[in-house]
Amino acid sequence: MIPGLADLLLREVSPAPGARSGAAHESGTLPLLSHALLSTWERQRQGTLTIAGYRESGGIEGAVAATADRVYRALDAAERDIARRLFLRLVHIADDTGVTRRRVAERELGEGVRDVLDLFVGERLVTAGANGVEIAHEALLFAWPRLRSWLEADRAGLRTHHRLTAGATAWEESGRDPGTLLRGAWLAESEDLAADPRRGAGLNDQELRFLAASVEQRDAEARATRRLVRRGRRLIAVLSAVSLLALGLAAVTLHQRRTADRQRDAAVSRQVAAESGKLREKDVALANQTALAAYRVARTPEARAGLLESFSGPAVTRIAGAHGVLQAVAVAGDGRTLWNIADRGHPVQIGGPLGGHSDTVYSVAFSPDGTMVADGGGGGTLMVRRLGGAARALTGPRSTVYAVAFDPAGETLVAASADKTVRVWDLARPEPGGRVLVEGAAPAHTVAFSPDGRTLAAGFEAARSGSWTWPAASPWAVHCPRARNRSWRSRSAPTGRRWRRATGTGASGCGGWTVRGPCRPARR
């Protein structure tokens, strides 16, 4: 080595101006120095390293790049493309570690690379051995501008290529396990890389097989998904058709059921309307209710006719009273005494039942002013009471009291009894036992005053009736020859000129007389 060369080498490997005191040389300087000394030795003169030879080699900074460029420029176009792919495959790009050397197996380089590889190996830029192929100097990654330009041109493509290479290696090592194949975005990026004529040419056979298997698996999964979607759509279509059919059947069934219900209701309505017509002769109130029920079930012509017939007659309302046979009823002048019947359709009970009887009650009557009520029954019981006050028992009848009546002034009470007597009481001063007005040969069943209070009629068994001028005349009798049963009721006309008597059974159920005078009644 000629004098001065060593000092030059020391200056070039020394830290840059401005570096802190004691700082060492930069990383990668020694490999560059080694290659620069080798290049200078190749240019030695008579076994001596000269400064001219050192500068001709490019020095520490340019020796590696100059050697690489010299080899690269000696290649043709195809070989240059092979050299580019070779060096890019020998480099690893990572986000955290930057650019580093990468050792690869020679089989990964593919065919047609050996000749170009030998040229760079011969210049000691690349090493090749049993462990694989790699760049000889780490400094080449930074000192060779051409390599840096290749790296900067497509860093994303290089990362994709390296990912594809690593995946293909893992796929082969796992026995081509489908789980190691590429999917999703990585597969799409690899397809784009392979589709590029320049970048895709750098893929080896193993990488192409791996990419093809990944694409085939993706397509198979897509086909399976499409088949599944088609099956799902067919299933939905079938289920929709079945649902529509079921809905149609349900609609038909519902229609048939409604039709059957209407027919049933119509039949029931007609039957109830017919029963209502039969009941009208026996129980008008129940007949009206059943007619309304028939119309509510179905508005058939029969039900409508029955309902109209119910409204064409007088309104009848059933009043639920005491249990047993109802022997007598009476209505006060105001219609609001024991039952409020102001609303004929909805009678309302006001007070409780009137007591005082131990046997059946056969007769009841209100005084004309509606303040008193008299009632007679079995055992000769006769009660008179003011409404809201205590009851008072009148004595006299020895047997059942069949009828009671107030005179129009409300001052006198007359009772017809089964002891064959008609008795009278002055209500202001009732005497014990009353006064026997007449005693007949048979039980007395009915009594009635004329509206002017001057005439009293009484009916007895054995078809005998009588009339008296009230209060002092003697009685006269009227006989009904065709009646063969007892006289139950007698009533006077509003003018007091006519009487009507009703009998229980016989050829003539009732009879009437025109009263022209106390002793001259005429049969009508």
From TrEMBL:
The chain crosses the membrane at residues 235-254. Keywords: Membrane, Repeat, Transmembrane, Transmembrane helix, WD repeat. Residues 4-178 form the Novel STAND NTPase domain. InterPro entries: nSTAND1, Quinoprotein_ADH-like_sf, WD40/YVTN_repeat-like_dom_sf, WD40_repeat_CS, WD40_rpt. It comes from the Bacteria. WD repeats lie at residues 354-384, 394-427. SMART domains: WD40. This is Novel STAND NTPase 1 domain-containing protein. It comes from Actinomadura darangshiensis.
